[in-house]
Design a protein that fits this description.
It is a single chain. A two-stranded parallel ribbon has the order 1-2. The chain has helices at about 1-30, 45-65, 70-100, 120-150, 155-185, 195-205, 225-240; strands spanning about 105, 190. Helix 1 packs across helix 2 (about 45-65), helix 1 (about 1-30) crosses helix 5 and helix 2 (about 45-65) packs antiparallel against helix 3 (about 70-100). With about 240 residues, the protein is mostly helical.
Length: about 240
């Protein structure tokens, strides 16, 4: 039970911190635009990072088994495996959404060496840097704190509340994705999740309507109408570039 609560806590921390990173990364690229809530869920968390932090913790713990006698190469191997595992998690999540849900949550198509726009070398290096930072700076000092938290009844109650809210949020977001998938299948396209968020935000700004940060799909118009408008606009841009 202790390891279960430890991983639950790490999932919570990783998901929230990942949301903060995504918020800064995605929105600082758009300095003159209103900020958009990143990720799949409504709340301030990105589950991919939560799973990632759990993997980093388990791999860093495995490192202590000294599978390689030389400490330097043992740590170097751990960091490489961390980068590979994080890239693999990113690819599995991305390909699942792309092939089965017909939704693209992120797009690395403009990056060198990308595979299907889902993973690319530059972000694999970023995962390696994150793994190294965790292994060298965080993991050595987090074990005692995690052990105390996992044995604290009040903390366990808090984690239970988080996962209750999180599961409701996932169910709500899954219902939204089902609507996006229906549109994608009917029109034989792949819906860009962040793209439709940006489109709705721009429509709100043009019509002087209030934009809701935590509910970016909230609108007076049907979601299907926004999707048709977005893809009509993209098609016009594509034809204009060909002329």
């Amino acid at each position: 039970m202790s390891i279960f609560l430890t991983l639950a806590y790490l999932f919570f921390v990783g998901s929230v911190m990942g949301w903060v990173l995504e918020l800064l990364y995605r929105n600082l690229k758009r300095p003159h635009k209103k900020w958009i809530n990143p990720g799949f869920c409504t709340g301030p968390y990105v589950p991919l990072y939560g799973f990632g932090l759990c993997i980093l913790f388990l791999l860093a713990t495995l490192e202590q088994q000294h599978l390689i006698a030389n400490p330097f190469w043992n740590k170097a191997l751990t960091i490489v495996v961390m980068a590979v595992c994080m890239t693999l998690i990113e690819y599995i999540a991305g390909i699942f959404c792309l092939k089965f849900l017909k939704v693209r949550l992120w797009d690395y198509s403009g990056q060198w060496g990308n595979i299907q726009g889902i993973i690319c070398p530059i972000f694999s290096l970023a995962w390696a840097a994150i793994g190294a930072g965790y292994d060298l700076l965080i993991h050595p000092y987090i074990l005692n704190a995690l052990r105390w938290l996992s044995q604290n009844l009040a903390f366990s109650f808090f984690i239970g509340m988080f996962f209750g809210i999180f599961l409701i949020d996932v169910a709500h977001s899954a219902n939204l994705v089902a609507k996006l998938k229906q549109f994608a299948v009917e029109n034989k396209v792949v819906v860009k999740y962040e793209g439709i968020k940006h489109h709705i935000q721009e429509m709100h700004m043009q019509n002087s309507q209030k934009y809701h940060f935590f509910t970016p799909f909230r609108s007076d118009h049907a979601l299907s109408d926004h999707l048709r408008e977005m893809y009509d606009s993209l098609e016009k841009q594509r034809k204009h570039r060909k002329k």
